[in-house]
Write a structure and sequence with these properties.
Oligomer: single chain
Number of domains: 2
Shape: rod-shaped
Distance between the termini: 87 Å
Radius of gyration: 44 Å
Structural class: alpha+beta
Largest sheet: 5 strands, mixed
Number of helices: 11
Number of strands: 5
């Protein structure tokens, strides 16, 4: 069964039709490319028509077109010839390099170059006249020149395609980096917003519930005082956060990142909100200075732990322990875990997620959950948040 020939492209049909018409016009005018050949001028139509047919396959089946076209141009040398046939053959050679396989694109220029050299040397040896070199020049013009031109065009196209692919990959990587940066920034903003405001809002929720549930003017007055203090502080921190996000907010004063030196004030605020909290801070005398990201993470973790204790812990003592070692800072916060007797605020779990994210960003370890405390009365349970934040060894060298 014969394989069906590929359907020619429109540009190939136009080239084939235009070439055939030009060849017929030259034949009708009696303009031939050579004389003294064994076959007459009518025979020149056969290779011309064959080459026009191969022009139809120049881009769809370039190797077949080149093979048949080579046979046709050789047959044309035994006729009076036609200039259109020669021009069509050069186009077939060019197309075979441009549209053929990579192996063919490498092989055809080399082959045509060797054929040109062989023809030139052969005719020089046969005629022994310098004019024989002209035959080699003509051979190079109709075979080697279009092959090398096709190779240059193909290399340029491949280089352009490779550059376009690199540009698309670069754009894709840039878009992925942008998405990751936006996602990371949104996560950071969410953590900061939660840590800065959730503590005050939780205190407001707890004391407003107490003021509504207890029919005691003195208790309601104290609760309202705490609510006002937390609302004012929360509003101030919200304004500072908006000032960071928007330059036109009117608050362009950069807010200093909180450090462990501010833990005393943080614990005083927790006591004002009703927590019984103590601090145990053990520091290595010759330990390195803590990096700012470590101090910020430790401060925010203690802040969120106190917020969770205010919302969920039972009455009792909350203990904050900081142990600074040569290569790590350990933070531990424990709070009673029995069912609370007083009002409680709802929780979403975002606080634990934020603490874990802060710890993992610094390469530390995070753990939280209930434990049995031998120190509590009756061996009750406590909720423990335990964090280890590594200290960069490079800070030790900087200190020395």
């Amino acid at each position: 069964m014969a394989l069906p020939l590929p359907r020619p492209q429109r540009v190939d049909v136009r080239i084939a039709v235009a070439s055939l018409l030009c060849g017929l016009a030259l034949w009708a005018l009696g303009l031939h490319s050579q004389a003294g050949r064994p076959l007459g001028s009518d025979w020149a139509l056969v290779p011309m028509v064959a080459l026009a047919g191969m022009e139809l396959l120049r881009s769809r089946a370039p190797q077949l077109a080149l093979a048949v076209g080579t046979l046709a141009v050789v047959a044309d040398q035994f006729t009076s010839g036609n200039l259109a046939s020669i021009l069509m053959f050069t186009d077939v050679v060019y197309a075979a390099v441009v549209y053929g396989t990579p192996a063919a694109a490498r092989r055809i220029p080399v082959t045509t170059g060797l054929v040109t050299v062989a023809v030139t040397v052969g005719f020089l040896a046969w005629f022994r006249q310098p004019e024989a070199v002209l035959i080699g020049v003509v051979t190079a013009a109709i075979s080697f020149a279009p092959a090398t031109t096709g190779a240059l065009v193909r290399n340029h196209r491949e280089a352009t395609a490779a550059a376009r692919l690199r540009a698309e990959q670069t754009a894709l990587l840039a878009e992925m980096d942008r998405v990751q940066a936006v996602t990371a920034e949104r996560a950071r903003m969410a953590r900061e917003l939660h840590d800065m405001v959730a503590n005050h809002l939780s205190a407001i929720a707890i004391h407003s519930t107490a003021a509504l549930s207890l029919d005691n003017p003195a208790t309601s007055k104290d609760a309202l005082a705490v609510i006002r203090e937390n609302s004012v502080e929360g509003l101030a921190e919200m304004r500072r956060l908006i000032g960071i996000l928007r330059d036109d907010s009117g608050d362009l004063e950069p807010a200093a990142a909180p450090t462990l030196d501010g833990l005393a004030a943080l614990l005083d605020g927790a006591r004002t909100n009703g927590l019984d909290v103590t601090l145990d801070h053990a520091r290595v005398p010759d330990g390195p200075k803590l990096p700012a990201p470590v101090e910020l993470a430790a401060y925010r973790i203690v802040q969120e732990s106190l917020t969770n204790a205010l919302k969920h812990a039972s009455p009792g003592r909350v203990t904050v322990t900081l142990a600074q070692e040569p290569r790590a800072l350990k933070v531990r916060v424990t709070s009673p875990y029995d069912d609370p007797a007083g009002p409680r605020a709802p929780g979403s779990g975002a606080g634990l997620v934020g603490m874990r994210e802060r710890t993992e960003l610094l390469g530390g370890t995070f753990g939280s959950g209930p434990e049995t405390s031998p120190e509590s009365e009756g061996g009750g349970k406590v909720w423990t948040v335990s964090v280890t934040l590594p200290v960069d060894p490079a800070d030790e060298g900087a200190k020395e």
